[in-house]
Design goal:
Layout lengths: L6 E5 L11 H12 L3 E5 L10 H8 L1 E2 L10 E7 L12 E5 L6 E2 L6 E9 L5 E10 L5 E5 L11 H14 L15 E5 L16 H13 L4 E4 L11 H21 L4 E3 L13 H4 L2 H12 L14 E5 L2 E5 L3 E3 L8 E2 L3 H12 L6 E5 L25 H8 L4 E5 L5 E5 L2 E6 L8 E10 L2 E10 L1 E2 L9 E2 L2 H6 L2 E11 L2 E9 L4
Parallel strand pairs: 1-2, 2-9, 10-11, 11-12, 14-17, 17-18, 18-20
Antiparallel strand pairs: 3-6, 4-5, 4-7, 7-8, 8-9, 10-21, 13-14, 15-16, 19-20, 21-22, 22-25, 23-24, 25-26
Helix pairs in contact: 5-7, 8-9
């Protein structure tokens, strides 16, 4: 099989466990390299087997050298460099990986061409080579790539593109002008305010309805579910209550979602910090409440230092998602806390948006609406301080964000301004006439939106409710589609077309 290969790609363990630690295999690849077969080595296998450093250096122009090179796990901004076929259509991105750097390259060899760099190590960052191409004297081609430790990174289209381009290049195939397009069609869902109640699992009076809703979402086959806040009601009066109720409610919430086969990314809502208003004694508990959220929800910890786990970002396929902690500090008419994004978090957000130009779509998630006109107030009547004039909205406008998702007060509304689409939706079980969820089908050139709603009956008008249920006729009918639209990016920003229902202006 190898005798007929134009290129061979190694993605395996290195050093003593390297596939080429077998002398017979090493000899075979030496022979193929002499015939001009292209060779690519990804991640750990750029660390050569004992006695193989000279071979890997000859085949791809450089490799990992124990005692000289480094391989700690770091989050870094990557940048494609140079005008090379491997970099066609590639743009930068931020990724956490076990990036190998300080590699040993052939000295003074112009045929060793860096194609990807990253700023490492974090304390004294310099541009380190993370991907490179090499044209051998015999015309054969080699490629090395330092990333690939976390399999989740391969679900990022910007991360994949450069490697896929390189595989074509080492095989002496033509790399498309815009690079290899590999982004698949996929879905995510959004369900704010779910369930906005302090529940165990299972919970008497609630579980049948919760199960019905989550099975409906699971049937949409989303890769994950966004929850823009209010997982709990959270009106916990003191330190002991905060710690006790968080320990009971958050693991129950996570297990319910996991048992329904749903991966979730949750943003912080006002319920997670007690709900408004926030007099001084209540505001003083906010930091403790946030620590419980960080501890039990275990969201990605790549946000600002003091908000790791409450503000975070992730890339899936060609879409960047950023979740915000919109409850920063005391002050404002709502009591001791005002919804806003400023200072360190704002700088972090601007950096994330600027440092991921390789994505095709950008979705930002925050609990409260920014655009108040035409949109329902947040789930407790909250809106972001400054609205459209806020530093947050101006940052979203500057960096061409497509979609801002937030919680509504029970109804759903879509508002557009400055090339950004805001969708406020949700509904609190037992306290709103219905509950809705958003399904987004993501294509490389657009996002199809569909909002679905079902009427819910609360068993009590005073929280904590005894339970929630669906009327028999509602259960038989299922969720109603209350709005559809197609979001695509025009010259002036995101645009909705073929909008129906709640997505119409």
């Amino acid at each position: 099989m190898l005798d007929d290969a134009d290129a061979i790609v190694f993605f395996a363990d290195g050093r003593e466990s390297h596939p080429l630690a077998d002398p017979a295999r090493l000899a075979k690849i030496r022979d193929l390299a002499r015939r001009g077969v292209g060779l690519a080595f990804l991640h750990y296998c750029i660390d050569p087997p004992p006695g193989g450093q000279a071979d890997l250096t000859a085949w791809m122009g450089g490799c990992y050298e124990p005692g000289f090179s480094q391989n700690p796990v770091n989050t870094t901004k990557t940048t494609p460099v140079g005008d090379h076929p491997i970099t066609r259509g590639c743009s930068g991105y931020i990724a956490e990986d076990e990036w190998y750097f300080d590699l040993r390259f052939r000295p003074n060899d112009a045929n060793v061409v860096p194609v990807l760099t990253g700023r490492l190590p974090p304390r004294t960052p310099q541009d380190k080579v993370l991907g490179w191409a090499y044209t051998r004297p015999d015309g054969g081609r080699g490629f090395g790539f330092a990333g690939g430790h976390y399999t989740s990174n391969w679900r990022q289209e910007p991360f994949r593109k450069l490697v896929l381009n390189a595989i074509l290049w080492v095989a002496k195939a033509e790399v498309p002008r815009d690079g290899v397009r590999s982004a698949s069609t996929w879905r995510f869902a959004s369900i704010p305010n779910f369930p906005a109640a302090d529940l165990g699992y299972p919970q008497d009076g609630w579980e049948e309805t919760l199960d019905y809703v989550l099975k409906a979402i699971r049937a949409e086959e989303p890769e994950f579910v966004l929850v823009p806040g209010d997982l709990v009601q959270g009106n916990w009066p003191d330190k002991a209550a905060v710690e006790q109720r968080a320990a009971a409610c958050y693991p129950a919430w996570m297990k319910r979602m996991a048992d329904h086969g749903l991966t979730c990314y949750a943003a912080l809502g006002d319920g997670e910090i007690g709900g408004p208003p926030w007099p001084d004694d209540k505001a003083a508990l906010a930091s403790l409440c946030k620590r419980q959220f960080q501890r039990y929800l275990n969201m990605p910890r790549n946000g600002p230092l003091r908000m790791q786990g409450t503000a975070f970002s992730l890339i899936y396929e060609d879409t960047l998602f950023v979740a915000l902690d919109v409850f920063e500090r005391p002050g404002g008419a709502s009591g001791g806390i005002v919804p806003q994004v400023t200072g360190e978090q704002l700088q972090w957000l601007e950096g994330v948006l600027a440092d991921n130009p390789g994505v095709g779509h950008v979705v930002v998630v925050g609990h409260v609406p920014v655009l108040a006109a035409g949109a329902p107030a947040g789930s407790d009547g909250l809106v972001l301080a400054g609205g459209r004039d806020s530093a947050l909205w101006q940052a979203l406008k500057k960096r061409r964000v497509d979609l801002y998702l937030c919680a509504g007060s029970g109804s759903a509304a879509c508002t557009q301004a400055d090339g950004i689409v805001q969708i406020a939706h949700g509904g609190k079980l037992g306290r709103s006439p219905g509950i809705n969820y958003l399904v987004a089908t993501v294509y490389p050139d657009r996002i199809d939106l569909e909002l679905k709603e079902v009427a819910v009956v609360g068993e009590s008008t005073r929280p904590p409710q005894a339970g929630v249920r669906l009327a028999d006729e509602v259960r038989a009918k299922g969720f109603d589609v209350i709005g559809t639209a197609v979001l695509h990016r025009g010259a002036a920003g995101a645009v909705l077309s073929t909008a129906t229902g709640c997505f119409r202006d």
